[in-house]
Amino acid sequence: MIHIYVINKKNYCVLLYTKFSSTPLLIPLNPKITKDLYLKMLEIRYFEQQIEKGFARDQINGTTHVCSGQEAVCAGISAHLRLDDYVTSTHRGHGHALGKGLSPERIFGEVMGREIGLCKGKGGTQHVADVTKGFLGTNGITGGGMPLATGAALAIKYQNRNSIAVSFFGDGASNQGTFHESINMAAIWKLPVLFVCENNLYAMFTHISKTIPTETIAQRGEAYGIKSLTIDGMNAVDVYTKVGKIVEGMRGGSGPVLLECLTYRYGGHSKSDPRVYRTKEEEKSWKERDPIKQMKKYLIENNIYSADEIKSIDNKKKSEISSIYEKVLNSPYPDPASAEEGTYV
Q1: Which residues neighbour 308 within 8 Å (Cβ) at sequence distance 6 or greater?
Q2: Which residues contact 63 (CB under 8 A, 6 or more apart)?
Q3: Would 60 disulfide with which of 17, 54, 165, 329, CB 3.0-4.6 Å?
Q4: Whether the Cβ atoms of residue 7 and residue 13 lie closer than 8 Å to each other
Q5: How much is the pLDDT for 28?
Q6: What is the DSSP-derived secondary structure letter of residue 208?
Q7: Is the Cβ–Cβ distance between 249 and 242 less than 8 Å?
Q8: E strands within the chain?
Q9: Can you tell me the distance from the alpha carbon of 313 to that of 120, in angstroms, rounded to the nearest whole number?
Q10: In this predicted model, what pLDDT tens digit does every residue of 73-116 receive, in sequence order?
């Protein structure tokens, strides 16, 4: 039995550093791979920060859920996906969409209600989708993406393709009936679906220690007889390396896998969440293991980039995302006459 969590008197979860290192694994990867991982994480981080600024400036309406802190999971897994693979996402799905190759401009457009948006600005943050890239959508229903990914995996098997389907979901969704039903069906039919639990410790405002009786969420997959494992979701190199082996096996017919990625969202559940249910000390301890900082260290220690080069790359990517945002901000809203076009009931 592997013990991963220590729950203290305040019910805060502390990651055991004896299980997961606070520094990147020194696994030699192709420099291009590490560069791509870093760029994708930067793109996600700066995209989410720009969204937060937009709300603070009253330039964006509605609500949103950002994934700052969880970039290693999005980048490390998406790096193994092809155009003909499928992804289903969550309410916190901008990173998944960017990872699958969707346009930052069109995602901004959808979140900001502009005509250039992926759904013409009519769906918003929880209805971002692009089937041409295999991204079957963000989803406002907790656990709503898992049955969709299972269905996509069934289609793949019927068509005798070696594609896979990936379903991202949070720790709270592992208590939904869709979680158990989807994994059970995928296990019985040996479907090529990767169930990815982004365990950031909190289902909205509730700590997992109050809702999940098992030591890990991965143990729940073992009950259905599928391969299940828990990994460090703050380390992009670790995620990329371990997921590569999983995806290779799934393309060869090994069947479904449940992957629990231990990660942390820096912000609240949504933009209006003051995070009074967790301590500053807890937040600080997780930010010390920031996935982007870890990757910077990896790149420098392995002589892939110098510190000055990394600074230049960071500034360039931040400026690029800011420019895209400003372009979308000044783009037109949909014509009110088109309100009923492309909608289905």
Answers
A1: none
A2: 125, 270, 271, 272
A3: 54
A4: yes
A5: 55
A6: G
A7: no
A8: 5-7, 13-15, 86-88, 165-170, 193-199, 202-203, 206-207, 227-232, 257-262
A9: 32
A10: 999 999 999 999 999 999 999 999 999 999 999 999 999 999 99
